[in-house]
Design brief:
single chain, 118 residues, alpha+beta, six-stranded antiparallel β-sheet, 3 helices, globular
């Protein structure tokens, strides 16, 4: 397991690290109640429950967003239900993936993470 985000990113592709840091900035800007967890294979963010996670895979950034509904995004790879939540996996390989739609989905994931599950 890595001790810090910098440890996790140390040996990763520079372009993917830049994408990760951009996404992380978007996440942390959502509020001051976010808990960041560094795991062996990913970094996750929660507030009551996990609402987003990201990991570097080769030269791309893979992101998971937990939402109360199924949605579409141009970078969407797959979506699968996990109880009342649907986990959406996105591959962000270009700056175009960091659009207003992604920001809105991330905000929704953050907002609904504090809501108790049914």
């Amino acid at each position: 397991m890595y001790a810090t985000v910098d440890d996790y990113l140390a040996d990763k592709d520079p372009a993917a690290v830049e994408a990760f840091l951009r996404f992380r900035t978007m996440v942390l800007a959502l509020g001051d109640d976010i808990e960041e967890r560094v795991h062996a294979s990913e970094i996750s963010w929660s507030r009551g429950r996990t609402f987003a996670a990201a990991f570097v895979y080769a030269s791309k950034l893979e992101v998971a967003l937990d939402l109360p509904r199924r949605v579409h995004h141009a970078a969407l790879r797959e979506a699968f239900p996990t109880g009342p939540i649907t986990t959406h996996r996105l591959s962000l390989t270009t700056a175009a993936g960091f659009d207003d739609h992604l920001a809105a989905l991330l905000r929704e994931a953050y907002d609904t993470a504090a809501t108790p599950r049914p």
